[in-house]
Design goal:
- Helices cover about 0% and strands about 45% of the residues.
- The protein has no helices and 27 strands.
- It has a four-stranded antiparallel sheet, with no helix packed on it.
- About 35% of the residues are buried.
Length: about 300
């Protein structure tokens, strides 16, 4: 387990080098205010971080909203001031002033589809696609009020689904809107996707699975789990990690398959997500840091 304290909801970008290899091993986002510097962590690694405001760094803003590494090796970082592409040495920034095809500079979500298309969700509800070096604004409509695209992903059929800040799920191609059941964990809105395109949505503590063009609530054996799930994430075997309080449990084939518990790392709302280095499960506690379970 690792606990990383934080003081603010700012982010810094950190690159890990392994001297035996000249290419970056890992790019990670850490909470807290940052200043450009290098820190030696071991004889084999050096940590370097970048931040907005430093001319030599090029990160458009310290508040990072999304990050994804595409199949060509680039790391894409979404911020409220543009989209940054990192090649291991420098950032290239795309925003609505220099990239006409980008719908907005306020990037709130990123996802790369299996065909290599990078899908970009924006704070105003618009969507942009990026493929073969070209940004293109996507024309679509959905019957919902909330504008922010909280998350987006493709299902097993290749359809793109968008999750908004209210926890509603919309299909990009026809604007179909699905309303997941809600629980009692106010403010929790998450989407999880397996490598095969299986998708789950958590809305206010209630978890539903996308099956075709409908959402089916998961029927956990405990009533409290059906109402107050604080985080979800996909494991390396495509099972669903479900977090309730200090416990993380793996759900697969309609039953609990593994349990991790006894971890206390803050009294604020936790959110689950896969660790970018080794796909272990992480639990981020808002403005308190993160706990990590090795799985």
């Amino acid at each position: 387990m690792r606990f990383v304290p934080c003081a603010q909801q700012d982010f810094r970008v950190i690159r890990f080098f392994r001297w035996r290899r000249s290419l970056p091993l890992l790019l990670w986002l850490a909470l807290g205010p940052a200043r450009a510097q290098q820190i030696t962590t071991s004889p084999h690694y050096v940590v370097q971080r970048w931040e907005a405001g430093a001319v030599e760094d090029g990160l458009p803003q310290n508040t990072v909203t999304a990050v994804v590494q595409t199949q060509d090796g680039y790391l894409w970082i979404g911020t409220y001031s543009g989209l940054a592409r990192f090649d291991g040495l420098r950032f290239t920034v795309f925003d609505d002033s220099n990239t006409p095809g980008l719908a907005s500079s306020r990037v709130t979500s990123l996802f790369e589809a299996d065909d290599g298309t990078l899908w970009i969700g924006h704070g105003n509800g618009e969507v942009t696609s990026y493929r073969q070096g070209r940004f293109q604004r996507v024309n679509w409509e959905a019957s919902w009020k909330s504008g922010k695209i909280q998350d987006l992903a493709t299902d097993s059929a290749g359809d793109v689904w968008l999750l908004n800040g209210d926890g509603l799920l919309a299909r990009l191609r026809d604007g179909l809107v699905l309303t997941p059941e809600s629980g009692q964990a106010a403010g929790v809105v998450e989407l999880a996707r397996s490598r095969r395109g299986q998708m789950w949505v958590s809305r206010a503590g209630r978890v539903s699975e996308l099956r075709g063009d409908r959402l089916v609530p998961l029927a956990f054996s405990e009533a409290s789990t059906n109402r107050y799930v604080s985080g979800i994430g996909v494991s390396r075997d495509d099972s669903l990690w479900v977090i309730t309080g200090p416990q993380a449990r793996k759900w697969k084939d309609h039953a609990w398959r593994e349990e991790l518990g006894g971890v206390q790392c803050g009294d604020l709302l936790p959110v689950a997500y896969p660790h970018p280095a080794d796909q272990s499960l992480c639990r981020r506690v808002w403005c308190r840091g993160q706990c990590r379970w090795k799985t």
